[in-house]
Amino acid sequence: MKTGEEFKACFERELLPELRKLEEKRKTIVKKIILLSLTIVIPLLVFAIPSTLVYLSVENEVCCFAGVFLPALIALAVWRFKFNEYRSEYVREFKREVMDKIVKFIDPNLNYHPDQGVSRQTFKSSRIFLDRVDRFSSEDMVAGRIGKTLMHFSEMHALEKHETRDSKGRRHTHYETIFRGIFFTADFNKKFKGTTIVLPDTAEGMFGSVIGKALQSKNILRPDLIKLEDPEFEKYFVVYGDDQLEARYILSTSLMARLTDFRKKTGRKIYISFNRENIMVAIPYKKNLFEPRLFKTILEYAPVEEYFKDLSLVVGIVEDLNLNTRIWTKK
Fold it and tell me: What is 234-247 written as a DSSP string?
């Protein structure tokens, strides 16, 4: 795995020239957005305030909407469309010229596909999250072979639709996030047939060992609770599986130690699935990891270093979990 010092040298040698070009484009786009705002929003406000007073005095709601609010909505829609157009152009070029180079720097065998992502079917097949998926998006896929291990991962956002009715019987729809973050999948280094799910242990952390284990065992939506002999591992994780022996075969003493270390390293709750001879890891994030900020310079090293660190963390799963060791029948 490449070091931070090596990446800093790469930043100064290869990335900075591209970033300087992009910085000029960013400044141009920001100026366009400011000009757009001045030509649309400010005249709209100047027109809307006195017009609103006039129409309100007439007490005609239809005229008020047609004369004030409809033009305002159209103007704001035009502003939003142009803003997204400018921003998308900048983000696409940043990903093509910068993110692709960072991925190749980490490992030349990896390929970056900004418009592709891990599929909805793969996400559902992991059985990590059991909620119904009503909205799904996935992008910024990194794929390739690290040593003997085929892997790919991407950013992902899955949501479930909820409907409620108010006191007047009117229906309201909103969407709640099931998962947002990085979803990683790779071929595992052992053969197995069943499914083993490793989830963050919230019950024991909240209620203690005795009550926590009792609550875990009552989770009717999951297969059997798997009890393991690693107290530190069980501080962070709870394991469910459809085969006790197979789960213990998969979760060897060394792998449990590596998962515990990886959990500490990320500082985040992580979700793992062993299914169809693959390992899948979900790491929650609340931010978009691989897109630049439009209203902030990209010439500073720290933000670019964050892209390198986030990518290295996920690519490093192969090494952290020792997935290239093929002492069993898989090759």
Answer: HHHEEEEES-HHHH
Rg of the chain, C-alpha, whole Å: 25
Residue 307, C-beta contacts closer than 8 angstroms, at least 6 positions apart: 98, 99, 102, 289, 290
DSSP string, 108-127: TTEEEETT----HHHHHHT-
Distance of alpha carbon 46 from alpha carbon 219, whole angstroms: 59
In this structure, are residues 278 and 198 in contact, taking their beta carbons and an 8 Å threshold? no
Q: How far is CA 249 from the centre of its chain?
A: 30
Domain boundaries, the chain: 4-191+277-320
Whether residue 274 contacts residue 186, with contact meaning beta carbons closer than 8 Å, is answered with no
* pLDDT more than 90, % of the chain: 65
C-alpha to C-alpha distance for 85 and 170, rounded to whole angstroms: 35
Name the DSSP letter for residue 227. P
> Rounded CA gap, 113 and 129, in Å?
25
DSSP 164-210: EE-TT--EEEEEEEEEEEEEEEEE-SS--SSEEEEEE-HHHHHH-HH
DSSP β-ladder status, 278-284 and 110-113: unpaired
Q: Specify the length of the chain in residues.
A: 331
Q: In the 8-state DSSP scheme, what is residue 3?
A: -
Note the pLDDT tens digit of each residue in 54-95. Answer: 555 555 555 555 555 667 777 788 888 999 999 999 999 999
Q: Is the pTM of this model over 0.90?
A: no
Residue 307, CB-side half-sphere exposure with 13 Å CA sphere: 27
For residue 246, which of 222, 274, 271 has the smallest C-alpha distance?
274
Burial code of 86-96, b = ≥16 C-beta within 10 A, e = fewer? bbeebbebbbe
Comparing CA positions, the residue from 123, 130, 131, 135 lying closest to residue 174 is 135
- The token pair at 11 is 């930043």
